[in-house]
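To close the section, here is one more complete example, presented without commentary so you can practise reading it yourself. The ligand is guanosine-5'-monophosphate.
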Amino acid sequence: MRIFISGPSGVGKSSIITEILRRNQDFVLSISYTTRPSRPRELDGKDYFFVTREIFEDMKSRNEFLEWARVHDNLYGTSLSWMEGRERQGRNILLDIDVQGVRQAQQKNSPGVYIFILPPSIEELARRLARRGTEDDEALRIRLRNAKNELRSWGMYDYLVVNDDIAGAVRDVQSIISALRCSREEIIERIPWLREIE
Ligand code: 5GP
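Output:
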């Protein structure tokens, strides 16, 4: 199964994703390609594949991305072959992509479930962004403006999870995954004899 998770920056998405991955070891996080420079402690091939704009454009022109997007002036894309390789190994995929990417994945009828993480309020989101302290004032302003734009896209998602506190949001996302594990599509793959009852 593919689970797409979006949410504006500062909403606490990465903490939720880290905990969900720890609890669901059959899931891997899709590693995106990006032209953004790496931040301290980020590793190439683990957090992202950090590539030049030329390489990114080249991959784009060869249709190697399920979706791609420009976020805060950097390009990000999901490699279709990387993801399908993992799926062939039997892994479920968690994708952390923005609303533009979700729109493209949905247009391509990519199977998957779409979850949007919401802040409790815009004010709280602004506070969380400022606390993070990785950017200067101008970058912060851009992120907040982009966050509001992203929030307007809530209608594209199957589930909306409010991140009041991390533990509660993790519980909600975990409940969605647990329910999906009992979906007809998942069960019929795991229990083939079900189709063959005489
Ligand atoms: P950051 O630069 O903080 O790591 O990520 C910024 C935003 O880019 C996040 O909202 C994240 O969801 C989005 N993002 C990361 N990878 C991809 C991707 O492959 N495709 C799309 N559409 N968005 C991505």
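Once you have examined the tokens, check your reading against these statements. Residues 1-26+91-198 form a domain with the Rossmann fold fold (CATH 3.40.50.300). The first helix runs from residue 13 to 23.
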